[in-house]
Automatic annotation (TrEMBL), chain A:
The keyword Ion transport does not apply. Pfam families: ABC_tran, TOBE_2. The lineage of its organism: Bacteria, Pseudomonadati, Pseudomonadota, Betaproteobacteria, Nitrosomonadales. SMART domains: AAA. This is Spermidine/putrescine import ATP-binding protein PotA. Part of the ABC transporter complex PotABCD involved in spermidine/putrescine import. Responsible for energy coupling to the transport system. Residues 4-234 form the ABC transporter domain. Its EC number is 7.6.2.11. Keywords: ATP-binding, Cell membrane, Membrane, Nucleotide-binding, Translocase, Transport. GO terms for molecular function: ABC-type polyamine transporter activity; ATP binding; ATP hydrolysis activity. It is an enzyme of class 7 (translocase). The keyword Membrane applies.
UniProtKB/TrEMBL annotation, chain B:
The lineage of its organism: Bacteria, Pseudomonadati, Pseudomonadota, Betaproteobacteria, Nitrosomonadales. It comes from the Bacteria. It is found in: Cell membrane. It comes from Nitrosospira multiformis. This is Spermidine/putrescine transport system permease protein. Its main location: membrane. It is a multi-pass membrane protein.
Amino acid sequence: MALLEIRNVTRRFGSYTALDNVSIDVEAGEFFTLLGPSGCGKTTLLRMIAGFDLPDSGQILLDGKDMVGIPPEKRPVHTVFQTYALFPHMTVADNIAFPLKMAGKAPQEIKKRVNELLERVHLPNFGNRFPHELSGGQKQRVAFARGLVNRPRLLLLDEPLGALDAKLREEMQIELINLQKEIGITFIFVTHAQDEALALSHRIAVMNRGNVEQIDEPSKIYSAPRNHFVADFIGKISVMNAAVMEAVPSHLKLAIEGLGEVTAPAREGVEVGDKGVLAIRPEQVRISHPSNESQLKNHFRGKVHDFLYVGDVTTYIVELVNGAYIEALLPNSAPGRAKFFEVDDEVTISWRHDAGIFLNDPQ
Amino acid sequence: MKRGNPWLWSAAVLVYAFLYIPLIIVVLYSFNDSRLNAEWVGFTLFWYKALFNNTEMLLAARNSLIIALCASFCATLLGTMSGLAIHRYKLRVLPVLVFTPVAMPEILLGVSILLFFLQVLNFTLGMVSIIIAHTTFCIGFVAIIVRARLQGMDESIFEAARDLGASPWQTFRLVTLPLIMPAVVAGALMSFTLSIDDFVITFFTKGVGEPILPIQIYTMIKVAVTPEVNAISTLLMLLTLVMIIIAARLESNASSEESTKPGKTVK
């Protein structure tokens, strides 16, 4: 039995459906992420798990027990809020001690646990400070400590890294992974940042407009997105309109409008005549001079439309003969050769026959 | 250095002169060694001594203090509750209902409360009726201040308390109340100053019994403007000023500083 079972949960606000028949199971010990654009329902779902909102229909079960009617303070679930929500009139130690006091723990135990958590989040001498005396990252750590100190069954994290700058974010991501591993508490993490979700999670539920589009491990979400939305939302991807010419267990043969024929990996449920898109990640696209004819079967001529140099890699946007654009990623690992192609250069782009994904969901 | 526009400066000086010269004259003449408010003769504390031997005046001051304390206590309690309710339940009518008495002409409020006491409740006018009337018009001020404080605060702080195991009552006692305390105290001080020098509503609701300070001052002036009136006015002014300064500081501290340590600010 899963630790948390969300069964057919629906929530409407007036005529707006925030969650539409959502079902998710979260296992004990998991780092589970709800990922989606704003308005996809992820925060609504989190608030329901915490007890601040109720489903219109469906059930939320924790350890097999229906949570409906149980107020937030009676649920073994704690939340780390986006704004940290530290109590400004209490010291760091009092903030962390709060859930223990509410649970009626003995003063000696409270003291011991608070010190333990302060150590764990690397703030051993910060107990007597007030929240306004802390930096953003330190506040964040205190919020984690406060959420974890009473060992909830489930820790909910509502975009907790959203307010931090990029460098600090990366540090906190690593800390968060370690913290979860050491303490072993189940995390449900809400974010709209796909890179964060990929880096942190054991499993991700990609949500869109109140629906769950896919639940999978990060690598599966990235390499085998189930539909166009997931493919587009996670990482960068180029799409070209395609029709299925041949569907056999080993591969698909696709016709790309105005371009020609390509092969793509086989996919269940795809039939000859299906229309959809061929989606391909920039790092799987090779870009080369037209003179070195590619050995690969899937290759086309194009013209560099634009490029984006970001230091470690350069992304080229190549215009194909049929007017479609495709992105190709080139690592800048060759010293002194940061730039290989210029705008308007003629190039050949190619990709392995198992690189693209055919997605036939309606747009 | 920025000098600003000289016209703006002189306009500002005129406005402040208009506001404060009458008050300054009252203060000065309260120390004037002459029975007439006509010319400066010399410095004296005689009028203050006379004031403290005036039993009628002392009684009036005592009554006014009792009324102000009781009314500000009740108004703070009720005003805080309505401030919280207005913030919590986003109903449009709620704030209008609470804040209207603040804007209502006092004479209207006085008359309606008088009629309510006499014709509806058949209530004998006296200290209690004054306290109730003062409470009525002070509630709105407290509610406005408390609500403003709540509006500036992160809502998730209160949710965090519930989330971490506090019941609604514990959340109020341990988180909400300490955080709004500066506003509550500011509201109490504001109510006190409004109550202690209120004339119109007191006049309508006092009945014939006890002497009340503002009414007493008015009665003295009807006879003649003596420096004794200047002295009591000066004292009243001083009390009001101190209270308003404390209230203003509490409010601005609370809003400028993200953290509020109630133990420190409330004292």
